[in-house]
Amino acid sequence: MQPEIDRNRSNARNNAGKKPGIRGRLRDEYDIQSETIKKGQLEGVLERKTFAQETSVFIGTALVVFALVGFVVDNLLGAHLSPAHNLIHLVGGALLVWFGFSGEQKAKKCSLIFGAFYAVLGVLGFMVGTPGMPSVGNLVRDDSLWLVSPEHLELGSTDHVIHLLLATVLLGGALMKFRRLRREEL
Predict the structure, then answer these.
(1) Closest Cα partner for 41 from 20, 67, 58, 22?
(2) What gap in Å lies between CA 157 and CA 160, rounded to an integer?
(3) Which residues, including other chains, have CB under 8 Å from residue 128's CB and lie 6 or more apart?
(4) Per-residue DSSP letters for 30-89?
(5) What is the distance between the alpha carbons of residues 153 and 83, in angstroms, rounded to a whole number?
(6) Spatial CB neighbours of 100, under 8 Å, sequence gap ≥ 6
(7) How many CB atoms lie within 10 A of CB 185?
(8) What are the tens digits of pLDDT across the range 73-127?
(9) Backbone torsions φ then ψ of 180, nearest 5 degrees
(10) If we measure between CA atoms, which residue out of 92, 78, 89, 64 comes closest to residue 134?
């Protein structure tokens, strides 16, 4: 067996010109002396994020932005946006973002609940909706208009499709078993 000094020199020669990996950079930057980096030493440096957390934060942020823009443009993407509809999206989006940052299990449960809610809302909208003329948002005749609260909360075909897309993404995100390392301060 080679003495410790020789082994280190041969490793330096073999690794010449190569960029150090993440563990090597962490060792250098955080002055970690051991060859193996233990789990506790990386706390706060690398944090595992699940797909449910990422999905929850992404969809929540999108809903918040959609709601805020919806207060100005009431027919955004052909949807029937009223102040009540925008307020629902604003609160729902804020909850999704909050639970997305609160932890894996909370993000998963929240995504499942909101995904199921949007799925039921989308399917029910197509089942209950009747042909009609909306009084808010996109003022074009709709074949599947659901007057939840006339002149306050009306959902049309575009709304139903958007709700089904949201449901698909949220449920898919909650049920996937995918983890990603998020690098902080590297």
Answers:
(1) 22
(2) 5
(3) 146
(4) HT--SSSPPGGGGTTTEEEEEHHHHHHHHHHHHHHHHHHHHTT-TTGGG----HHHHHHH
(5) 8
(6) 52, 53, 54, 55, 56, 57, 60, 107, 110
(7) 9
(8) 888 888 888 999 999 999 999 999 999 998 888 999 999 999 999 999 999 999 9
(9) -135, 140
(10) 78
